[in-house]
Amino acid sequence: MDPITSNFLTSVAAGLTGKLLNAAGSRIAKSFSGPEEKEALHLAIRDGIVALLLTIPTETEDERGHLDDIFKDFFQDEDTAKALVGLLRGMPPDLEDLQDIFSDLGFVAEQIAGFVFREAMQAFTAAFLESAESSQVLQPIIKIGLLRKQAGLQEETLAAMQQLISFLRQAKEESISLQAGILHALEKKDAKPMEYRPQLRVIAAEGDWQSRYLRTMWGVCDRLELINFDESACGTGDDDELKISQVFTTLNLANLDCAEGEDVGEVIRGKYRDQQMSGKGRERARRSIRAVGAVAAMDRLVILGRPGSGKSTLVNHLAGQLAQRRANMPEGLADCGWSDEKRPLPVRIVLRKFAAWLPDEEQANAGLVGRYLEKMLSDMDCGEAYPYLKKVLWEEGGIIFFDGLDEVPAGTGREKRKRIIEAIRDFCAPLDKCKVVVTSREYTYKKEDSWRLPENEFPVVELAPFGEEQMGVFARAWYGAVGPKKLWDRKKCDDEAESLFHAVCSQPHLKDMAGSPLLLTIMAQLHGRDGTLPRDRAELYKRAVRALLSLWENRIVRDAGGIKRMEPGLVMQLGVREDVLQKVLERVAFLAHERQEGERETGVQPADIPRADLRDELEKELKDLNKAQEVIDYIQLRSGLLIARDGRTYAFPHRTFQEYLTATYILGKGDCDRMLKERVKRAPD
User: Fold this and answer.
1) C-alpha span between 420 and 406 (Å, rounded)
2) What is the C-alpha R_g of the chain?
C-alpha cells in the first residue's frame, strides 16, 4: 500500500486549518490573521493528524486502507472543524460529535480490531497541545494550560508526543511519510534517513472516566433545542450552535418569597408560613426565590410547572453547568446557591426514556434505576464510568435529576408511573449525601394521587412565569448569542434586544404569552428572522400553534447511541395530518368560545374544553376511537397546546390561542385577524 506522504499531510492540514478558522468566528480568527500565526496553527494541526494516524492498527493492508480512506474524508468535513474548534479556546474536542461524524463516513468499530476512535482523538489532542506549546507564536493565543488540564492525558502520553514533535521538527518537511505505522523522514542537517516508531499506546488517565463523563454530560445538556420554522430560522444558519448556557434566564418559584435572614429551605418547608400569613414577616423587604437556589437548598425537591415553563431547561442548565464546575472549567456555575468549593457530581435521568426501558414483568426496586443508569452511561459511551460514579454518589454525594415524571408514554397509565416513583424512592433512600430533584407538569402531580412522593420527604414547589425583568434579560441574552453569528456589533445586538423586549411588552396579549419561556423563545426566533414580530396577530398565533402542534416534535435529535436523526412526533407516527388535527382544534375552540361568550362574565382565561368534546370531534375525523385517545394524549403530554385542568377538562395555554382557532374556524385564516381585533375592543387581554 502506498505511504501517506508529506504532500497529503500538508494538503489535509491546510484544508482543516482554514475550516477551523471559519468555524471559530471572527474574534478568534483575528488572532490567527498573520502569516506566522496561520503557519504555526497549520503545523500544530498537521502534527495532530500524524499522531492520530500513528494509532491506526496495521494488521492488514485492507484494514489500513479502509481507515485511511475514511480519515481523508473526515479531516475535510466542515462538521469535523466545528467539533475541533474548542482547541483554539483551550478546550478538548467534542468527542461525541466527532464519533458521530466518523461513523457517518462509514466506520464500524468491529471492522478494525484494536482501533479505538477516542484514543486516536486523544493522540491528536496531545500532539496538537505539545506542538502549540513548543511554538512561541501560539503560546499567547491558545489557552494551553487549560487545554492540558481538561484533556485528561497521562504524563507518559504527553512525553511520547514531545518525542514525536521533536522528530518532526528535525525532519525535512517534504520528506515525511507514514507507512505501516512507522514515520519515515530525512534529517534537515545531512539528509540521513530517520524513522519514528510509536512506543506508547495512547490511553486516558486512570481518573479520566470522570473528565470524560463530565464533558459528555455538559455537551448533551447544554444543547438548545429550537424549532426550525424554515431554513433561515434565527438567521444563524445553524440552530444547533446555540447553547442553553448562552440564553438561560433565571426562573423563580411561584407563591414563595423570602426576606433577608430567612433560610430558603425553611421557607419551602413552611417554617415561616404562620408569621407570613399573620403579616409579622412582611415588614422586611422580600424577594423572589430563584429555582436554582431552591435546588441548592433542598436535599429532596419536586418541581412542577406548566408546559413550556422551563422545567427541563432548568434541569439541563444545572446538570450541564455543574458538570463544568466539577471539571474545573471556567464557565462553571456561579452564584447559584452553592458555595464555590462545592462541586456536586450531576446525574440526569430522563424519565420518558427510563419508562420506555422499564421491563414490564419486574417489580420496582432500587436495582432498576441502577441498571438503567448503567445502560444510559453505556449509551453515552461512558460505560466505564458506572462503578466509579456509583461509588462517588454513595460515598461523596452528588445531585440526581429525574426529569419529566409526566412524560411516561401514553398507554402505560398510573401503574408504570407508580413503579417509577417506587424505584426512585428505593434508589435514593440510601443516598443520604445526594440531592434528588424530580420534575413534572403540575396537572399530573395532584395531592389526591396515591402514587405521589411523600411531601414530608419531597417538598413541592412550582415555577412562576417570566416577569418583565426576566423578559428583558432573556432578550439581551438571546441577541448576545445570535447577534455575533450575524457579525453584528454590540450596539446592533443591544438595539435588536430592545426591539424584541419592546415588541413583547408593548402589547398585553404578547406580554402575557411571553411569561412562558417556550412561547417567548418562539417569539424571539420569529423576531430574529424578520427583525420584528408579526404585526398580524393571527400570523403570530398561527406560527405558534403550528410550532406547538408539530414542529417541536419533528426535530433532529440524537438517539441513545448519539446518532443524529429526525424523530417524528406521535401525530406523524399515527398518520394524522396536521391540517386535520388543526381542523379538530378549531371546531373544539369554537364550541368552547361560544359557551364562554354566552356567560355573563367571561373573564380573560381560556374556556374549559370537555374531554368528551375533544374525543368526539377527533373520532369524527379519524373514524377510530383508540387513535383519537392517542392523539389527545399527544396534544396534552407532548405538544403543550392543551392543558389538562383535571381528568375531564382541558384548556388552551392562553386565551389568544382559543380566539385564533375560533376565528379561523368561522372566517378562514385570511380574515381571522379582524375577529381578534374586534375581540380586543370588547375586552382587555
Assistant:
1) 11
2) 28
Smallest Cα–Cα separation from 548: which of 671, 661, 413? Answer: 661
CA distances to 52, 64, 181, 285, 427 from 58, in Å: 13, 6, 6, 72, 46
Q: What are phi and psi of 195, to 5 degrees?
A: -145, 155
What span, in angstroms and rounded, lies between the C-alpha atoms of 421 and 388? 25
Q: Which residues, 6+ apart, have CB-to-CB distance to 207 below 8 Å?
A: 152
Task: Give the pLDDT score at 31.
Answer: 84
Q: What share of the chain is helix, strand, coil (3-state, %, to 5)?
A: 55, 10, 30
| 556, three cell numbers | 433532529
558 forms beta bridges with 564
How far apart CA 138 and CA 620 sit, in angstroms, is 69
Instruction: State mean pLDDT over 407-434.
Output: 77
How far is Cα 66 from Cα 4, in angstroms, rounded to an integer?
13
Alpha-carbon span 367 to 423, nearest angstrom: 8
Q: Which three cell numbers stand for residue 258?
A: 423570602
- pTM assigned to the model: 0.62
pLDDT, tens only, 442-472 = 777 877 777 788 888 999 999 999 999 999 9
Question: Going by DSSP bridges, is the β-strand pair 643-644/609-610 parallel, antiparallel, or unpaired?
Answer: unpaired
Cβ–Cβ < 8 Å for 305, 404: no
Q: From the CB of residue 595, how many other CB atoms can be counted at a distance below 10 Å?
A: 15
Instruction: Report DSSP letters for 541-561, one per residue.
Output: HHHHHHIIIIITTSEEEE-TT
Residue 358: which H helix or E strand, with range?
A: none
Cell of 522: 418562539
Q: Which amino acid is residue 385, in one-letter code?
A: A
State the burial class of residue 218 (Cβ atoms within 10 Å of its Cβ: 0-12, 13-18, 19+): buried
DSSP H helices, 201-279, are 208-221, 244-247, 264-269, 273-278
Q: Which residue has the cell 397509565?
A: 413
Closest Cα to residue 107, out of 73, 67, 134?
Answer: 67
DSSP category for residue 407:
G
Q: What's the pLDDT band for 24 if we cut at 50, 70, 90?
A: confident
Give the SS3 label for residue 440.
strand
Average pLDDT over residues 215-238: 62
Amino acid at 515: G
The C-alpha atoms of residue 181 and residue 55 are separated, in whole angstroms, by 8
Q: In whole angstroms, give the CA distance from residue 651 to residue 608.
A: 5
d(CA 289, CA 253) in angstroms, rounded, equals: 6
Sheet holding 460-462: strands in order across? Answer: 345-350, 398-403, 434-441, 300-305, 460-462
Task: Provide the H-helix boundaries in 464-610.
Answer: 468-482, 490-505, 508-513, 517-530, 537-546, 570-574, 578-597
Residue 123: enclosing H or E segment and its boundaries? Answer: helix 117-133
Q: Quote the CA–CA distance of 519 and 49 in Å, as a whole number.
A: 45
Give the whole-angstrom CA distance, residue 269 versus residue 258.
12
The Cα 474–Cα 468 span in angstroms is 10
For residues 408 and 375, what is the distance between their CA atoms, to the nearest angstrom?
A: 19
Residue 609 CA, chain-centre distance (Å), reads 34
Please enumerate in sequence order all residues whose Cβ is within 8 A of that of 594, keeping only pairs 6 or more positions apart, or say none.
none
Distance from C-alpha of 27 to C-alpha of 483, rounded to nearest angstrom: 13
